[in-house]
UniProtKB/TrEMBL annotation:
UniProt protein name: Protein FAM78A
Domain of life where this protein originates: Eukaryota
Organism of origin: Perca flavescens
Amino acid sequence: MGCIQSIRCKPKRFRDSIIVQEVNTSIDPNPTSIDESSSVVLRYRTPHFRAQARVLVPPVAGKESWTIGWIQACNHMEFYNTYGNKGMSSWELPDLRDGKIQAISDSDGVNYPWYGNTTETCTVVGPTKKDSKFTVSMNDNFYPSVTWGVPVSDSNVPQLSSIRRDQSFTTWLVAINQATSETLVLQTIRWRMRLHIQVDPKKPLAHRAVLNEPVAQEQPQILGKNEPIPSNAMVKPNANDAQVLMWRPKNGDPVVVIPPKY
């Protein structure tokens, strides 16, 4: 029994004593929905990725405060809209595309590095006398607008013929010490969203677009071994501010349609 006793006698470091009681993650089973109500843009809405964790934080002895919540980064993005034989527009993350970085923050752009600060995080402010139990949750999906017409022309003649998207994300459940910035990765999730929409621009509005694949997304993976968070996934810019809309014509040079915000 001596060994067990000696472990008991040694006060556990706080970082060893946060308990993740349960983690659930899924992508909703419904297919991507397509909205052709606008004569200017096609909109589509993908199913939601969801993650939820029940966490138990033991009493915090000192005046430390810890925030526990979700951080997400995009590891890969392909987002191509083809316009017949004219060319394609694509949303791109230049540093990720060129391999300069491995991932980019997918924070809400306000509460870096967190994905959000409503249901996504919880802060435990010490000293506390008893266990703190709480749930943190997040969800994510895509709801973009894609112009029917070539984005660099003044004409609104429908020429959109295909939309392809393939994006990968890593989502971490993390505890961060507010004073020291010590960061503990508690859980790592990987997920991916893919879609292919075929469009016949000659057909009348509301009858043009068909979802080819996939009807159901592959479900997220909870990794057995946690992955570290790349440093640039913790800081500005986030994916929304860094992305650029390019026009890549069949003939001629690429054009920046919408520059990055950042």
